[in-house]
Amino acid sequence: MKGQPEAGGTVVMFSTADWAAPCWTNKQHIARRLAERGYTVLYIETVGLRRPSINSLDLTRIIRRLRSGLKPPRRVGERLWVLSPLTLPLGQRHGFVRHFNAWILRTAIRLWLRRHGDGTPPLVWTYHPYMLEAISGLKRSALVYHCVDNIAAVPGVDATAFAQAEEALLARADAVFTTAPALQAHCARIAPHTTHYFPNVADLAHFAQARHAGAVPPELAAIAGPRLGFIGTLTDFKVDFALLEHVALARPDWHLVVIGDEREGQADPVLERMRRLDNVHMLGWRPYAVLPDYLRGLDVALLPLLLNDHTRAVFPMKFFEYLAAGCPVVATSLPALADFSSYCRLTDNAEAFMEGISNALTAPQVIPENDPVLMENNWDRRLDKMLAVLGPEAARAG
Predict the structure, then answer these.
(1) For the chain, where are the E strands, in sequence order?
(2) Among candidates 300, 321, 373, which has minimal Cα distance to 209?
(3) How does residue 287 score in pLDDT terms, banded at 50, 70 and 90?
(4) Confidence grade of residue 4 (pLDDT, cut at 50, 70, 90)
(5) Is 354 helix (H, G, I), strand (E, B) or coil?
(6) Cis peptide before 316 (omega within 30 of 0)
(7) DSSP code of residue 335
């Protein structure tokens, strides 16, 4: 690729998640691994994709950002800095908001590059399109759009403004990486020659610890079997809470273990009812480092996701994490999982979901740790392929 990044160069990454978010996603994993390979990385936290609500959580987040936004980027690793931009979360339709946010970002990026860059044009890697003005005039080695969600379908996001900004980004990006077939088709309509499909993956070595003898957390060990588990943020436009409630009510002898917190500003009535059931155990958020210990104590891992405009473009990160941990997987029939139907039990309705759980309990499907699909779908192998798209110099970084 013309203008490929130099090995060990600089990366400016625009994320849609804060660095310290409870549940890490592709953004933090990719940023950390780029730094480990010798790149110097500036990770820019979300600029606010949706209009904030009038609730205590959003107001707290705004106050926290006001405080952190007045500080320079903080160092979180040997080659990794995090910038909490002081931007206005008032909607991207308004020109003065876009211009102000772009000026804030542009100024902060240029200052950081003067202090920590190596003098070569940086690789710009973005997860959203609201950064084009911020990089205006910035000489760069390449522009990557890593499209991991249908953000326009997220409640509170201005879908029209997002679509317009995304079209502009797709037309300018040197490489577009997508994580689901629907996202691939969407982006390839505008950028057919630069769009590449790379599903979400797992940290194989980390989650494979669950396969080996070790402790099960006492709170989990105290729960009777069989234990069915879901790990992830409890988001009402992603997770089918009604399906989980149906399973818990229909089979009181099965114990449902839920690890994760509700998304900010949410108070779902179905989850509230589930908390009162004897066979539902809402354990809350647990650190990434200890998730293999919890997976070690599960009999079946669940992916009970809704089917809607957002999830049809989702490849759940938990899929390969569950497989890496050696857990049988029962999932709703997400389009992105169709190519991996032989590795899990895909279901179309509540009764089929329950039947899939029954079958997984009586005949567990455990994928070998050295299975070629698992070996190919881990973060290091995925980053190898992405950097190879950018050119040999990028692939040799570090």
Answers:
(1) 10-14, 40-44, 74-77, 80-83, 123-126, 142-147, 175-178, 195-197, 227-231, 255-259, 280-282, 300-303, 329-332, 345-347
(2) 321
(3) very high
(4) very low
(5) helix
(6) no
(7) G
